[in-house]
Amino acid sequence: MPFCPQCRYEYRAGLRQCPDCGAELVDELLPEEQSPPSGPLVTIYIAKDMPEASLVKSFLEEFQIESFIGYEAGSAYPVGQIEVRVAEAYADEARELIAEFLSAPPEDPTL
């Protein structure tokens, strides 16, 4: 069945053009791109190294909070403190999640 890439509706076989917007129909839809949240990025965590920053970034993304790693440019590999940044709109939520994550007791590997 063909789909309209603009309206994202499915139409009956045989149609070549969307009756609503006039766009040429396609065989399958591409995933919708999510626009990044508006507003500036703010630093919500400073990691001591790249593995720690990557861990925090992965953790936030489990909660659908897009994050970015920033470090001083000019080196092939980041050295020193590395910032984890999120859109300002998600800063408070991200800080709370990280605080809970860091204060949680380690899991008992014998369980």
Short description:
The protein is built from 2 helices and 3 strands; from the N terminus they run βαββα.
Structure notes:
With 111 residues, the protein is an alpha+beta fold. The chain folds into two domains: 31 residues, no CATH class; 63 residues, Alpha-Beta Plaits (2-Layer Sandwich). The protein has two helices and three strands, in the order βαββα. It has a three-stranded antiparallel beta sheet with strand order 1-3-2, covered by helices on one side.
Low-confidence stretches: none
Shape: elongated
Run of helices and strands? EHEEH
Known CATH architecture of the largest domain: 2-Layer Sandwich
Describe the largest sheet: 3 strands, antiparallel
What radius of gyration results from the CA coordinates?
22 Å
CATH topology of the largest domain: Alpha-Beta Plaits
Span between termini: 50 Å
Number of strands: 3
Order of strands side by side in the largest beta sheet? 1-3-2
Helix coverage percent: 10-25%
Which CATH class of the largest domain applies here? Alpha Beta
Let me know the average pLDDT.
81
Q: Which percent range describes the beta-strand content? A: 15-25%
Total number of domains? 2
Number of helices: 2
Structural class: alpha+beta
